[in-house]
Amino acid sequence: MASKPGILTDWPWKPLGKFKYLIVAPWAISSTYMYLTKDDPMERDFSTFTIFPILLSRYVHNQIWISLSRYRSAKGNNRIVDKSLDFDQVDRERNWDDQILFTAILSYLGTRIIPNGRNVAIWKTDGIIITILLHVFVVEFLYYWLHRALHHHYLYSRYHSHHHSSIVTEPITSVAHPFAEHMAYFLLFAIPLLITAFTETVSVALLIGYITYIDFMNNLGHCNFEFIPKWFFSLFPLLKYLMYTPSFHSLHHTQFRTNYCLFMPMYDYIYGTVDESSENLYEMSLKRKEELPNVVYLTHMTTPESIYHMEIGFPALASRPHSSSKWYLWLMWPLTALSTLMAGLYARPFLVESHRFHKLTLQTWAIPKYKIQYFLQWQKSSVNNLIEKAILDAEEKGVKVLSLGLLNQKEDLNAYGEIYVKRYPELKVKVVDGSSLAVGVILNSIPKGTTQVLLTGNLTKVAYAVALALSHKGIQVASSKEEEYKKLKKSSINMSNNSTTNECLVFSQKLVAKKSDECMAYSGNSTWVRRLE
């Protein structure tokens, strides 16, 4: 939101929420029906029929850029601005698809209002040439001065400051503007389309190509990583003036008063608004190496649809629990099946996300295995090999701690990671499973003055560690099940030779805990009961 929101800030269909696409539904259904059922060429309009497929393709195009950008930003190589996205920015840019809907609505209206707007040709070379010339010498020129005007304090505070709230840009930042600002941009981009329509040189190829070009360059310029190689500009020197780079536009978001161009820096060079550090930042970004993590959390996928809930997936789903899967994911089963196939073929851990906590770099890696595969006997060897590879990769990168998450720490799979430590005794990376943190939380929650503790339920590594820690303190730890008591005793002998510790472990049927997931303290006898499962 701008610092002082002006009129027409919100999109008209904001109250509709997720139902906003119903606006184009009548046009999409009508144009599809007419094209598939009518024989009359005047009624069977291919150009109108393509509007809805273009809408869908633009959504896919932008989503590819989102996923690519977030993955590359997490890796850190060629990163431009060394900061992380904040939650406010993610929420602010969540309506990035509104501009796609806006374009579709105006396109449907244009086919009915503009002369020669229907039944346009598939290809017309003269129209494409006219569009290129108009874009370079009219659209780019007008945009440059419009952009400078938007940086005047009056317009900036009411409109353009919304866009500049994002210092660390990502592809969808390119379309994070108030509605009024989008109207101005659409009028600019419509100039070549309207002129070619009135001169009868417009074509379907021109419409698709020009819209795709705008989307592509918008996304490219707002990536937070540099990937245009130096040899590209060495081979074609003039491209320096006809094509910006992510680092070039990034300076506009950090310096504000430089690099105003739309896609072509030529007008910045003409009017002297090129940032002096543009070349230096470009070269530094290209040289930047992959960021090495200090801590890695190794997890795995749960279901085939869980890929969409990751940070590199759909932003709208990544912010919600996996249990909130939407109905439309069923329509995406071909893509889901493809991702499942790719996960099987990739066969190596992959980076999910990266975060910075003070001076620590924390990353989440994932094993390309699903939850069900951890319960299949014939998959255990494959899963263990992937976990082992992740540990060795972490060792090579100098990771200090690698935490096994979810089912990667199953006892019957790898004994909580113990097999890797024994297999590679010289490992410098500490392989942990998070149990020490759980033990610490439980010990801290036991009331002071407790003299007896009863452990019930299925005893795990956490329970054994809790029992050992309590017995070290002289607190009596009891088990009401003889079989569990024997396991505790055996574990205590293996982990400690302290006789006091062993004496504090007792078998008692007198203390019986109620079936409850909650802890309860018995007043008067200083006995604390916790159900551990």
UniProtKB/TrEMBL annotation:
Major place of localization?
Answer: membrane
UniProt subcellular location: Membrane
The question of whether Transmembrane helix is a record keyword is answered with yes
Segments crossing the lipid bilayer: 127-146, 184-213, 327-347
One Pfam family matching this protein: FA_hydroxylase
One GO cellular component term, please give it. Answer: membrane
Q: Which UniProt keywords apply?
A: Membrane, Transmembrane, Transmembrane helix
- Protein's UniProt keywords contain Membrane: yes
> What's a Gene Ontology MF term here?
iron ion binding
Q: Sorted alphabetically, which InterPro entries does this protein's record hold?
A: CER1-like_C, Fatty_acid_hydroxylase, Sterol_Desaturase_Related
Q: What residue stretches are annotated with the Very-long-chain aldehyde decarbonylase CER1-like C-terminal domain?
A: 453-498
Q: Biological process (GO) annotations?
A: lipid biosynthetic process
Membrane topology field:
Multi-pass membrane protein
Pinpoint the Fatty acid hydroxylase domain residues. Answer: 133-273
Q: What family does the entry list? A: Belongs to the sterol desaturase family.
Q: What is this protein called?
A: Uncharacterized protein
Q: Which organism is it from?
A: Cannabis sativa (Hemp)
